[in-house]
Design a protein that fits this description.
Blueprint: H1 2-29, H2 33-58, H3 63-87
Helix pairs in contact: 1-2, 2-3
Length: 91
């Protein structure tokens, strides 16, 4: 039963990787800057989910700490870019 759960998690990681490539396409093609920022933010969220799945697949609990730090960095970067787009500076 445990092998089945690991295989399901592995398939989920592969599907999320495919979704990341779709988001990457939106980030490159995106007609407006907010579309690009949203796509890059979605890539960050999906990366955190992949790290969490890797935690459950390989049973490395300290990877959850890495996922939390990555999520925080992604959030701060998104806020910084949004502020720069709104005001034209980071002041």
């Amino acid at each position: 039963m445990e092998d089945f759960a690991q295989n399901v998690h592995l398939v989920a990681v592969i599907l999320i990787l495919v979704m990341i490539f779709f988001c990457l396409g939106r980030a490159i093609v995106g007609p407006t800057a907010p579309d690009r920022v949203a796509a890059i933010n979605m890539i960050g969220v999906k990366a955190v989910v992949i790290i969490a799945f890797i935690t459950f697949i390989f049973d490395y609990l300290y990877y959850l700490d890495i996922a939390m730090v990555y999520a925080l960095m992604s959030f701060i970067a998104t806020i910084g870019v949004a502020k720069y787009m709104e005001k034209g500076a980071l002041d």
